[in-house]
Every structure is written in C-alpha cells, then in structure tokens.
Amino acid sequence: MKKINDSVFFLGIADRERKLFDQLVPLREGTTYNSYLVKGGEKNALIDTMYAPFAKEYLDDVKSAGVKIDYIVSNHAEQDHSSLIPALLEIYHDAVVLCSLKGAENLKNMLNVDSSKIRVVSDNEEVSLGGKTLRFYMTAFVHWPDTMFTYLVEDNLLFTCDFFGAHYTSFDLYADNSPALELAAKSYYAEIMMPFASFCRKHLALARKINPAMVLPSHGAVYKDPKFIFELYEKWTSTEVSGKVLICYVSMYGNTKILAERLLNSLSKLGISAKAVDLMETDEGELAEELIDATGVVFGSSCILSGPHPRLVYCAYLMSILKPKTKFYTLIGSIGWGGNLIAPIEANLKLPSIEKLDPFVIKGCPKPQDFEALEAFARAIADKVAELKSA
Ligand SMILES: Cc1cc2nc3c(=O)[nH]c(=O)nc-3n(C[C@H](O)[C@H](O)[C@H](O)COP(=O)(O)O)c2cc1C
C-alpha cells in the first residue's frame, strides 16, 4: 500500500510476467491493476479492486489497512478490476458496491454479485464518507457501456479506471512522463480506446473541465501532472487529417517488398509522411499504434492461392474493429498468373466512408516500366493526401 495523501492510498499490483492482454494485446512489460483506498471520517471506500490471480496479495493489503470497507466503487466491471468484489463482500459483509446501471447488470451477469449488495449511482451523484465526498460521472464507452469516473471532491482527485490507462510497470507511484510511458499510453489508447474516439473526446473534455490535481487510472502510473496525458489524448483523438500513409505488406520472395520500399521512397520525396511495416514482423499492438494517425493505408501483398496473404485480411479486419480515422486505402502487389488481391481485403474492411484508390499490381518482379508506373501511383496518393488536408 502506498500513500498518496493522508486519506488516499494506492493498492496497485504489478503483473510483469503477463505477455498478452484480452488475448489480443501484446504487452511490452506486463501491466498493473490499480485499486485505491479512500479513508473518510466515517466511512471508507475501495475504488476498483483487483484481478483474481492476485487475490491473496491484494486482500492481505486491504486487511493491513486496518479499516472497515463500507463501499466498493466499481468504475468498470471488467474482471481485471472487479473479479475480487465477491471475495471482498465475503470479508466485509455490510459493504455496498457503487456502480452505474450498466455496471450493476455486468456485475450480476459476470460475477454473480447479489443485487442486494449493489447500489446504482447516477451522473453527478455524491456519496459522503464523512469529510470526504465521492462524486460519480457517467462516462459510457471508455471503454465499456458501464464505465464511470469517480471524483474525490475535497482532494480534487479523479479516478478514471481504464481511461488514461497504460500497460506500464516501470514506476513507483507517479508517472515519469517518459517516452516509454507515452508509448505505453499510446498503445493502450490505440487498442482499447480508439474504437470509441468520439466518446474519448467527450470524456476528455469532462476531465479537463474537472481540472483534477491528479488522474488516477486503473493501469499504470498516477498522473501528478494530468496535462501530460490530457495533451496526448488531445492529439490521438483529434479529427485533424495528419496526411500520414501507412504501407502494410507481406512478401514471400521480396517482389512486393521492393514495391513497398520504392513507394515509401517516392512518397517521402513528394513530402508525404509515410511508413512501411512488414506485417509478419508487426504485432497487433504496433499496428494499432501506427493506425492512430494513418490517413491512408496501402495494403501490400503478393498473390497466394488466388488471394492476398491472410495477414492482410486480418489487418483489414483489425482496422474495422479498431476504427482508426483512415480516409482512404489502396493496394500494391505482385502476382504470378492471376487471382484477386483486393476482394478479400475489401470484404473485411468496414470503415465508414473510407475511399478506395486504384490498386497497383504487377506480374513477378518489378521491371523498369513498373517503377515508372509506381511513381505515377505515388503521385496519385500524394494528390489525395493534399486534397484531404485542404478539405
Ligand atoms: C504458395 C504460393 C502460392 C501462389 N499462388 C498464386 C496464385 O494463386 N496466383 C498467382 O497469380 N500467383 C501465385 N503465386 C505466385 C506469387 O504471387 C508470385 O510469385 C509473386 O511475384 C510473389 O511476390 P512476393 O515475392 O512479393 O511474395 C503463388 C506463390 C506461392 C509461393
């Protein structure tokens, strides 16, 4: 247990060995699950709890505080924060779980929490701990429909659960505002929050309006200087067109790779910010990070068994669920004799109003005339970027 002030304590636990989150998100250095204890003059509250595998450590820590737990605030019912609520209710029989309406439904469905133990709170509702007041803000969809913020009024502390979180363990208590933390927060945003960008913008504005002295998320470090994470979220959620073009390719014998590298070079010469990633060497997390500001995506694939490499189809599907603000896509590739490179990608790429530019496909290895044609293809992409930026 680490002290934040005389009334507020951090009960986070680092899970450094964890390699994958939600069976989808690769972790660079594990993660932390953060829970907080708020001691009031009359009552005490836990804000979010802990992931079940850490039951012993966590419950010992809570008990060592030597206070009765009157309230268990569940800002979000995902099991990494809520799965020890039943165990806590076994210890603290009179404790009441405070959560949103959707949170109540989720806690009942997922953890069999008895309705009699739950009190649903509404937007702006306050609960007094005696000299300390918890105020709740309904912040649906950052990232489940149940999510809410808890604000400790007298101390000006904002508990945001997953919002502003980071899978980051290299800290003692407070954020060091380092490039490593920025990358962890970026990765977290891309994989967890980006699909809900409009909700993120709305709840970011709320957090800014509250103007807390600290932001206390449920993964990663406590932000003593919330401006750091607010400005990053401002940038990532911005609707501005960055103009960046991301080339995502797979190549068996190097033909498509040559096209990808030539295109990257041509785009750079035309003043376009571009990046090429080999999808066989890029995990979901890295791809998601690159997609945050990708205005255009160029899929690169050779033909394999009549279609694109399956990794490209997966990439298109991933884009559909992560919902980056990508405005256009196209394709480069090399075939042997025939097949359809674009159709399986198209069938899986479901992004509202994304525009398709004519693809560029060659036979076998690139020839001098192919390189010339590729220059024209690069100019068409640059023109589209310029058009989007000036719109
Ligand atoms: C396993 C395998 C399956 C292939 N299937 C097809 C195919 O169905 N249609 C086609 O036109 N070419 C096919 N090809 C040929 C490749 O698309 C072609 O050699 C291409 O130039 C390879 O480009 P790369 O080096 O970027 O992978 C196949 C090649 C391999 C190795």
Sheet with most strands = 7 strands, mixed
The average pLDDT is: 97
CATH topology of the largest domain: Metallo-beta-lactamase, Chain A
Structural class: alpha/beta
Strand order of the largest sheet: 1-2-7-8-9-10-11
Q: How far apart lie the N and C ends?
A: 52 Å
- Just give the CATH class of the largest domain: Alpha Beta
Low-confidence stretches: none
Domains counted in the coordinates: how many?
Answer: 2
Q: Shape, please? A: elongated
Percent range for β-strand residues: 15-25%
Q: What is the oligomeric state here?
A: single chain
Tally of DSSP β-strands: 22
Structural commentary:
It comes from Intestinicryptomonas porci. This is FprA family A-type flavoprotein. In the N-terminal section; belongs to the zinc metallo-hydrolase group 3 family. Residues 245-391 form the Flavodoxin-like domain. The chain is of the alpha/beta class and 391 residues long. It folds into 2 domains: 2-237, 4-Layer Sandwich (Metallo-beta-lactamase, Chain A); 246-386, Flavodoxin domain (Rossmann fold, 3-Layer(aba) Sandwich), CATH 3.40.50. It is built from 12 helices and 22 strands. The chain has helices at residues 55-64, 79-82, 85-91, 101-111, 179-193, 197-210, 227-237, 255-269, 284-291, 310-322, 343-348, 368-390, and strands at residues 2-3, 8-10, 13-15, 20-21, 25-26, 31-33, 36-39, 44-47, 71-73, 96-99, 118-120, 126-128, 133-138, 148-152, 157-161, 214-217, 244-250, 274-278, 294-302, 328-335, 355-356, 360-363. The strands form 5 sheets. The chain has a 7-stranded mixed beta sheet. Strands 17, 18, 19, 20, 21 and 22 form a 6-stranded parallel beta sheet that branches. A hairpin with a 4-residue loop joins strand 1 and strand 2 (8-10). Helix 5 (179-193) packs across helix 7 (227-237), helix 8 (255-269) crosses helix 12 and helix 9 (284-291) packs across helix 10 (310-322). The mean pLDDT is 97. Flavin mononucleotide binds next to helix 8 and strand 20.
